[in-house]
Specification:
Order of helices and strands: EHEE
Helix content: 10-25%
Oligomer: single chain
Strand content: over 45%
Number of domains: 1
Amino acid sequence: MATNRTYVKTEVVGSSDKSVSDAIESAIAVASRSLRNLAWFEVIDVRGSIHDNKVSNYQVTLKLGLKYEPKA
Protein backbone atom coordinates (compact mmCIF):
# COMPACT_ATOMS: atom_id res chain seq x y z
CA MET A 1 0.00 0.00 0.00
CA ALA A 2 1.42 3.39 -0.99
CA THR A 3 1.94 6.01 1.70
CA ASN A 4 0.22 9.34 1.17
CA ARG A 5 2.56 12.31 1.29
CA THR A 6 1.73 15.91 2.04
CA TYR A 7 3.97 18.82 1.08
CA VAL A 8 4.32 22.47 2.06
CA LYS A 9 5.47 24.98 -0.57
CA THR A 10 7.59 28.04 0.02
CA GLU A 11 9.05 30.56 -2.42
CA VAL A 12 12.66 31.76 -2.62
CA VAL A 13 14.70 33.84 -5.06
CA GLY A 14 18.29 32.95 -5.93
CA SER A 15 20.76 35.06 -7.86
CA SER A 16 24.09 34.51 -9.56
CA ASP A 17 26.53 36.36 -11.77
CA LYS A 18 27.35 33.05 -13.54
CA SER A 19 24.18 31.28 -14.73
CA VAL A 20 20.56 30.34 -14.13
CA SER A 21 21.70 26.91 -12.92
CA ASP A 22 24.04 28.50 -10.41
CA ALA A 23 21.23 30.76 -9.16
CA ILE A 24 19.01 27.69 -8.63
CA GLU A 25 21.73 25.75 -6.83
CA SER A 26 22.58 28.76 -4.67
CA ALA A 27 18.95 29.30 -3.64
CA ILE A 28 18.53 25.65 -2.69
CA ALA A 29 21.83 25.57 -0.78
CA VAL A 30 20.91 28.63 1.28
CA ALA A 31 17.31 27.47 1.86
CA SER A 32 18.51 24.06 3.02
CA ARG A 33 20.30 25.70 5.95
CA SER A 34 16.99 26.56 7.61
CA LEU A 35 14.40 24.33 5.88
CA ARG A 36 14.14 20.57 6.41
CA ASN A 37 12.91 17.85 4.11
CA LEU A 38 13.38 19.67 0.80
CA ALA A 39 11.93 17.37 -1.83
CA TRP A 40 11.52 19.26 -5.12
CA PHE A 41 11.69 22.66 -6.81
CA GLU A 42 9.76 24.45 -9.52
CA VAL A 43 11.13 27.42 -11.49
CA ILE A 44 8.49 30.16 -11.44
CA ASP A 45 10.33 33.07 -13.00
CA VAL A 46 13.70 33.90 -14.56
CA ARG A 47 14.93 37.44 -14.93
CA GLY A 48 18.23 39.29 -14.84
CA SER A 49 20.20 42.47 -15.08
CA ILE A 50 21.98 43.92 -18.09
CA HIS A 51 25.12 46.03 -17.84
CA ASP A 52 27.06 47.33 -20.86
CA ASN A 53 24.77 45.30 -23.15
CA LYS A 54 25.67 42.02 -21.40
CA VAL A 55 23.94 39.87 -18.83
CA SER A 56 25.38 40.84 -15.47
CA ASN A 57 23.14 38.88 -13.09
CA TYR A 58 20.58 36.08 -13.17
CA GLN A 59 17.64 35.96 -10.76
CA VAL A 60 15.46 32.85 -10.44
CA THR A 61 12.26 32.53 -8.39
CA LEU A 62 11.65 29.00 -7.12
CA LYS A 63 8.88 27.24 -5.31
CA LEU A 64 10.35 24.62 -3.00
CA GLY A 65 8.38 21.59 -1.88
CA LEU A 66 9.01 20.28 1.64
CA LYS A 67 7.63 17.08 3.08
CA TYR A 68 5.12 18.10 5.74
CA GLU A 69 5.82 16.78 9.23
CA PRO A 70 2.82 17.30 11.49
CA LYS A 71 3.42 17.26 15.22
CA ALA A 72 2.38 13.92 16.67
